[in-house]
Amino acid sequence: MNRPALLSRARDRTEPWDLVVIGGGATGAGVAVDAASRGYAVLLLERGDFGGGTSSRSTKLVHGGVRYLRQGHIQLVLDALKERGRLRRNAPHLVRDLAFVLPCYRWWERAYYGAGLTAYDLLAGRRRFGRSKVVTPGEVRRRLPGVRTDGLRGGVVYHDGQFDDARLNVHLIRTAVDHGAAVLNYAPVVGLVHGPGGAVTGVTVRDLEGGSEWTAAARVVVNAAGPFCDDIRRLADPSASPLVAASQGSHVVLDRSFLPGDSALLVPETPDGRVLFAIPWHGHTLVGTTDVEVPAVPVEPRPTAHEIDFILETAGRYLAKQPQRSDVLSAFAGIRPLVRAGGSSTAALARDHTIRVDAPGLMTITGGKWTTYRRMAEDCVNRAATLAGLPKQECRTRDLPIHGFDPDAGRFGELAVYGSDAPAIRVLADVDKKLAENLHPALPYIAAEVIWSVRTELARTVADVLARRTRALFLNAAAAVEMAPRVAGLMARELGRDSAWTAAQVRAFTELAAGYRV
Ligand SMILES: Cc1cc2nc3c(=O)[nH]c(=O)nc-3n(C[C@H](O)[C@H](O)[C@H](O)COP(=O)(O)OP(=O)(O)OC[C@H]3O[C@@H](n4cnc5c(N)ncnc54)[C@H](O)[C@@H]3O)c2cc1C
């Protein structure tokens, strides 16, 4: 993955691409993998970094969605459970089984949630992760040492999947490239090219690094711009009515002492009717989430003070140790693109995906969730192939290993998320001992990971490395800021940049990270 080479490939092609995909989040990356693995010629364009939008800001669960089960969306849950199983099979280095405990404080809850979660198991069928069970108060205390115990009547344990969203995003991009796709980050689509009769026949792209602009011809353009998909649709039709409503969800990250142990806590209904998760994640505790409709979609959404207080206060009702603002190591927000069903509130909007043909040659795919990205991509490429009259090819992603595939990646310790790439990172650290050095005492990352992400994962900025190739910014914003000068120096050497670039990168990252501190 060499950006200058990818840029030349993207710019120099004279023939139309079969598909040009706008957006390098879960949806766009999934479409690129699907189409490239069918043998179609694919160009994916991302205006920032891969996964820099919603796809690095999720709760990091591969799940059927127990709350959708309660709302009666059986088919939605069934489809997601199917995809959950496939994703664990195709990316075992990134998806792990996680036990969730629902602590019960009212007499009827154990039977009620126990029955619901048995139904969840039945829907998962042979793809079930672990079996649900009703447990005693003692078992709840054992699994969740950090839970509030006064009034505890027992609990229910069930299983779902956990993953690292930004890492899966990068591995999907790499899978697409492994199958022949061209991909480019820092390359926004700034216009659509129209042919006879108003058909969309390509896009105008800007290279943010070099400043050049060019057009890429396409048999079909797939708009996978997530919460920004309406901006692309309006390039084709300025009067297009909005397809998505934006809903902001926020999380805070605390240290592990708030939820020691390996199980997650799920509160299925907070006093104001929401769902609250506290999840062990990379040696920390991730707590969220909120769901608040927002009128506009910022590129860098921020949790509001109210959202942070709400999460801390609600978590405090269920945790033995009350989290305070001063305990928050990082706070982040993401925007969910929910498909509008006609002006209702965001909580009631469909969680399913939608595919729409906006103009001849332009399709939009949005909605859904990380867990179902593969199924969304399959549906989208089927439609795109028909729309563009491409030779029919069967979808291959149901059993397609994702880059880094390794069923026993746990043996790589802190490098497990890299899967089969981990030994190559170890070699970097073995050859140059300085690269074996830890970048910060509070986090497990080593300098070799920076080199790896620049050489093979298209990391171009300090934020790419600290927010998405590693998760330093999301785990501990203050530590990430302290790491920035070292990371910038390592990157400058790799990319041939000067001291002005290094200083500007550190400044920009410090400014960005300020938004993750509360
Ligand atoms: C708080 C929260 C928690 C969630 N938790 C979960 C969970 O636990 N499990 C789960 O399965 N799902 C979860 N989801 C849902 C999931 O994260 C999203 O469905 C998914 O990430 C959406 O991906 P996307 O690619 O459509 O959007 P995005 O990730 O936002 O990607 C769109 C991309 O398009 C790019 N773009 C925009 N305009 C242009 C342009 N002009 N040119 C080029 N590129 C452009 C953007 O930069 C962006 O990178 C959660 C969502 C939220 C908000």
Relevant terms:
23% strand; 518 residues; ten-stranded mixed beta sheet; 20 strands; eight-stranded mixed beta sheet; alpha+beta; binds flavin-adenine dinucleotide
Provide an overview of this structure:
With 518 residues, the protein is an alpha+beta fold. Helices cover 36% and strands 23% of the residues. It has helices at 3-12, 26-37, 66-70, 74-90, 109-124, 137-143, 165-178, 229-236, 305-318, 373-388, 422-431, 447-456, 462-469, 472-475, 477-495, 499-514; strands spanning 17-22, 42-45, 61-62, 96-104, 133-135, 154-162, 182-184, 189-194, 200-206, 213-223, 244-255, 264-267, 276-281, 284-288, 292-293, 330-339, 353-359, 362-367, 438-440, 443-446. Strands 3, 4, 5, 6, 11, 12, 13, 14, 15 and 16 form a ten-stranded mixed beta sheet that branches. Strands 1, 2, 7, 8, 9, 10, 17 and 18 form an eight-stranded mixed beta sheet that branches. Helix 15 runs antiparallel to helix 16. Mean pLDDT is 94; it is low at 343-349. Flavin-adenine dinucleotide binds at residues 22-28, 45-48, 52-55, 57-61, 63, 188-189, 224-228, 232, 249, 289, 334-337, 366, 368-371.
